[in-house]
Design goal:
- InterPro entries: Tautomerase/MIF_sf.
- The chain has about 90 residues and is α+β, with helices and mostly antiparallel strands.
- The protein has a single domain, classed as 2-Layer Sandwich (Macrophage Migration Inhibitory Factor).
- Helix content is about 35%, strand content about 20%.
- It has two helices and four strands, in the order βαβββα.
- Helix 1 links the parallel strand 1 and strand 2.
- The longest helix is centred in the middle third of the chain and has 19 residues.
């Protein structure tokens, strides 16, 4: 990963990646990311690191061999929480 657009200019920056459901409230994401940033900074004393959210629809996640989009109860529950279809 480049550091502020410059390759090789600084030591590598640690990266934190979260895999999450697509959608959700933007303000809730901001709050979550701010709290995660604060917790990682406190625990690991990192001056500079990156957080990435990688969003997935229910059609792109399989648990125990079953596509989440095929679980109609889960689909209904997540659509109620996120207020939108979580399928592509």
């Amino acid at each position: 990963m480049s550091q502020n657009g410059q390759l090789g200019s600084e030591p590598a920056r640690p990266v934190f990646v979260m895999h999450v459901s697509v959608g959700g409230d933007l303000d809730a994401k901001r709050t979550m990311l701010r709290k995660l940033n604060d917790a990682v900074t406190k625990a690991y004393h990192l001056p500079d690191f990156a957080l990435f959210l990688q969003e997935h629809t229910l059609e792109t996640v399989v648990i125990n061999g079953r596509l989440l989009a095929d679980d109609l109860k889960r689909v209904a529950e997540q659509e109620a929480v996120y207020g939108q279809a979580l399928r592509s």
